[in-house]
Amino acid sequence: MEFIDLKTQYKLYKDEIDKKISANLNNASFINGSDVRELENTLAAYVGVKHAVACSNGTDALLIALMAYGIKKGDEIITTPFTFAATAEVICMLGATPVFVDIEERTYNIDVTKIASKITKYTKGIIPVSLYGQAADMDEINRIAKKHGLFVIEDACQSFGAVYKGKKSCALSDVSATSFFPSKPLGCYGDGGMMFTDDDELASKLRCVANHGQQGRYNHVMLGLNFRLDTIQAGILLAKFKHFEDEAEKRKTIGAKYTEMFKGSEVITPYLAPYTDRCVYAQYSIRVNNREDVIKKLNEAGVPTAVHYPMPLHLQPAYLYLGGKKGDYPVSEAVAREIMSLPMHPFLKDAEIESIVSLF
Ligand SMILES: *Cc1c(COP(=O)(O)O)cnc(C)c1O
Predict the structure, then answer these.
(1) Cα 155 to ligand 1 centre (Å)
(2) How large is the average pLDDT for residues 322-344?
(3) Which of 49, 169, 290, 339 is the least buried, fewest Cβ under 10 Å from its Cβ?
């Protein structure tokens, strides 16, 4: 059994994917080829925003957005400690300070009731994370941000395809960042990422930062770096995207099937908030109070598992300089002790789900 079955997916779409790769090898337009722009247009239309800007990966998408806002030493950015390190490291890399706000106990996303008290005169923006494929409560976050003159960057690296109050994740804030890492809901065959925004001026800044701060060749108007997406990856994504909506629906159904099968057990299954129209289950993550035993039993039965994430960022060695200590974010710490992820991909069969759940 596979945790995420990329091999089956490739076999199913092989002809279309191979055709795209071969076309790009033949026309040798490896950087900024036409597939990159086509992918941007296709995904912007799908998400429902004006601009999409492709880039090297999800981490860089977050970094570029912060650079476009001119974030620097002394600035504070509010985010959650219960996320992948990328969300916070990009803030630190610019010399700014991540200010953590604990998560909400059921959705594992930032607790909107705790944001306002962390806002200071140094706060510039909020990066909520739409964890495990469910959008954070973006309307409420946007309301708080607007009141205090802050920007909002949705870390949508796990939530491409998720739907919040009828709108797609990635279209819910000033700008959003997603990842095409192979195991994400929409993945390429290497690294890739994208930013989305409705703001014309911001979009041109994002594009500029991602390409050496250039506006026209050799005219460097701001500091940037090389954050481009390869044309080959864009082509692969175009081929895979044709099946994405179908896959997103399957993910939703498979998540619901797991949850249905767990009914009556002590396992805490994912909670879908009333504002969630579709969770894409980047991970199907459950909570158990005897995680070590459960993992051992599942692994011995041939069921792969993972833990996203075993330690909140404020307790990770690299972030101790921020002054975090045990007990600072009790919900994140408690969830980190109990959380574990089960196999999740669009090709998971009912019989497999049943056999996994029967091991509990
Ligand atoms: C995967 C991920 C990232 C980083 O994306 P990469 O493409 O791997 O750089 C950032 N934030 C979250 C929440 C992620 O899951």
Answers:
(1) 8
(2) 98
(3) 290
Shortest-distance atom of ligand 1 to CA 129: 13
Tell which atom from ligand 1 comes closest to the C-alpha of 83. 13
| Domain extents in the chain | 6-241, 244-357
Q: What letter represents residue 31's amino acid?
A: I
Spacing, Cα 358 to ligand 1 middle (Å): 32
Residue with the smallest CA separation from ligand 1 atom 14 is: 157
Domain 6-241 has CATH 3.40.640.10: yes
Domain covering 244-357 in this structure, CATH number: 3.90.1150.10
Give pLDDT, residue 350: 97
Q: How far is the CA of 62 from the centre of ligand 1 (A)?
A: 9
Task: Count Cβ atoms within 10 A of the Cβ of residue 277 and give its class: 0-12 exposed, 13-18 middle, 19 or more buried.
Answer: middle
On average, the pLDDT of the chain sits at 98
Please give the pLDDT value at position 133: 98
One fold for both 6-241 and 244-357? no
Write down the H helix ranges in the chain.
6-27, 34-47, 58-68, 86-93, 138-148, 200-209, 231-241, 244-262, 291-300, 330-338, 350-357
